[in-house]
Amino acid sequence: MAFTVVDHPLVQHKIGLLRAADMSTKKFRELTAELARLLAYEACRDFPVETVTVEGWCGPVEVQQLKGKKVTVVPILRAGLGMLDGVLDLMPSARVSVVGIARNEETLMPEPYFEKLVGSLEERMALIIDPMLATGGSLNATIDMLKRKGCRQIQALVLVAAPEGVKAVTAAHPDVAIHAASLDSHLNADGYIIPGLGDAGDKLFGTKQ
Ligand SMILES: O=P(O)(O)OC[C@H]1O[C@H](OP(=O)(O)OP(=O)(O)O)[C@H](O)[C@@H]1O
Ligand SMILES: O=c1cc[nH]c(=O)[nH]1
Ligand SMILES: [Mg+2]
């Protein structure tokens, strides 16, 4: 599996817009949802399909149908919630497993505080959503959590990734595919992605000081 930047003009245009510092909470939420929808579209590319025959206007016609892929979408609280509606637009029947992880601001270590996963994870593909992949601690902790419960097919959608985080996650979990809108330059001394978006959770929830 691999780390992929979704190099689609719409994705690249929208992630560029999202970087503007003077953006309203409303606009930041809208763009995040739109980007999540586009990344989810990309993540479904390899979903299995089968050919079935339906009765068309001029007789039977062979069509392709999705072959019953079971998905659970996994938003990492808080910021992952900003991507949830966009993903569910494409997968309205998907179950949602919510994971709460706060990054300790001093140590940058992930501190899990909530876990409500759906059942039968061994039968489902998990689609983890979080706008920011910085050190990779939060994503790795979420993947560990899902694997402990038997989940074997996992993908992640992020808006912005830092090289440090990509390295940490692909080293720990080479089987997990990550789709990103951008691979940025580096982390600063406080663990923020440069150029990044700033604090995505604060921007989505309007808690920026
Ligand atoms: O790759 P990492 O170094 O773990 O950093 C990324 C994590 O940090 C942010 O969440 P934060 O802990 O700030 O929580 P929030 O969503 O409540 O703002 C972000 O949404 C990721 O979950
Ligand atoms: O740049 C970053 C890093 C972690 N969390 C964010 O919201 N932004
Ligand atoms: Mg935050």
TrEMBL record:
Query: Cross-referenced HAMAP family, in alphabetical order?
Result: Upp_B
List GO BP terms, alphabetically: UMP salvage; uracil salvage
> Which InterPro entries does its entry note?
PRTase-like, PRTase_dom, Upp_B, UPRT, UPRTase/APRTase
| Keyword presence, ATP-binding | no
Protein family according to the UniProt entry: Belongs to the UPRTase family.
Pathway noted in the entry: Pyrimidine metabolism; UMP biosynthesis via salvage pathway; UMP from uracil: step 1/1
Q: How is its activity regulated?
A: Allosterically activated by GTP.
Instruction: Describe its function.
Output: Catalyzes the conversion of uracil and 5-phospho-alpha-D-ribose 1-diphosphate (PRPP) to UMP and diphosphate.
Q: Which named protein is this?
A: Uracil phosphoribosyltransferase
EC identifiers of the protein: 2.4.2.9
Q: Which gene encodes it?
A: upp
